[in-house]
Sequence to fold (462 residues):
Amino acid sequence: MSQDLFKQLPAIDKWLASASGAALCAEFSTAEVAEVMREHLSEVRRALHNGHAELPKFESAEYVALMRADLLARRLPSLRGAINATGIILHTNLGRAPLAAEAIAAVQDVARGYSNLELDLDTGRRGSRYQHVETLLRRLSGAEAAVVVNNCAAAVILSIDTLAAGGEVVVSRGESVEIGGSFRMPDVIAKSGARMVEVGTTNKTRIEDFSAALSEHTRVLLSVHPSNFKIVGFTAKPELRELANLAHRNELVCMQDLGSGSLVDLPALGSMAEQTVPQSVAAGVDLITFSGDKLLGGPQAGIILGRREMIDAIKTNPLLRALRIDKLSLAALEATLRLYLPPNEPLRQIPILRMLGESPSSVTRRARSVLRKLRAVPRITATLADDVSYGGGGSLPMNAIPTKVIQVRVAGMTAAALAGRLRTGETPVIGRIADELLILDLRTVPAQDEKVVVSALQQAAR
Fold:
């Protein structure tokens, strides 16, 4: 019987020439329809091999509707917006920092036409793309000069290649780190044409360790942000000012890869707050690198600032062109930096800083509002619980921020299945799973998206 069913499967070219196939080919393309049809037939053949003895009605309206749905699904954008309900504020997999409204408007303005990206409007001559943000970065950090590339890894590679190629970079053994994507500091330094010299121990490095490691080949004393971890307990590390003084006494460069790059104090975090960029400049660090899309709250970018002669040398490095920032990211970065100038309120206007600073009572109030709507949905059971949010993205490691979460259960559905339905909905909603419950933290959900979360859960629970 199965052999007879195999013989009844339509030939793809004949089906494409049928009324149903021709209609779909007219709406999409013959290649697209043929590819989907080929996959459908493969699935049917597998089912027949496994003992299923029923064929789809290939000429029916129902089958054509199924084909059309699959074809439409394939045309959905691969990269699209999502709602982060995980409570991880700088979620690398979800694109890190959402942009402020002003930054989005700046991107739209530059994207819709031409711009003065590299044109000096006063003289009519060629200008520098970096001029659009350098003055702002100098004003906000206290540094003498600045330049921007496409991400922080590029900033580190470019800086070390410029200042230490062929020489040695001295770094604490406890800061020889690996961050996401197997990005290792020893590999970065080697790729930059320098040799890394580790000093001290994993948990304790003193200024004397740096001093003992100096040689005629030493070019840079490097301090590295630990990013995704903390060493606690029996620990020691030199103060930045100590490291800077040692470098200057020996005519060397003191460099800091700050990573997260906060421009302001974050009062809501209290003692958990990170060292700010202006504090590093004030400590005498010669060159600082940090990300644009972490605690700065802007687009992906690698920011380099410090002493003018070093920035000038970096600007002449041929690698800069290969690593340069694009116009859209530059527009978003400039608009974000302007939000740090008075009378703006960056802690309120920049989404990342607003999320970090939102009080537990505010999150609770919003969670209760969503909870009331969910309790009216059949099959959904939802409760509130105390929990914690995290900075994420290589910032504020291990620093838990008190929050209130919504725990969701749908009758007859596992938490994993529910999470899968939310991820694959029209607007993906990303939560997390704990104790067979779907957990939603509204700290990372803008107020205007709360109704989308409710609607997504209503659809998923059907």
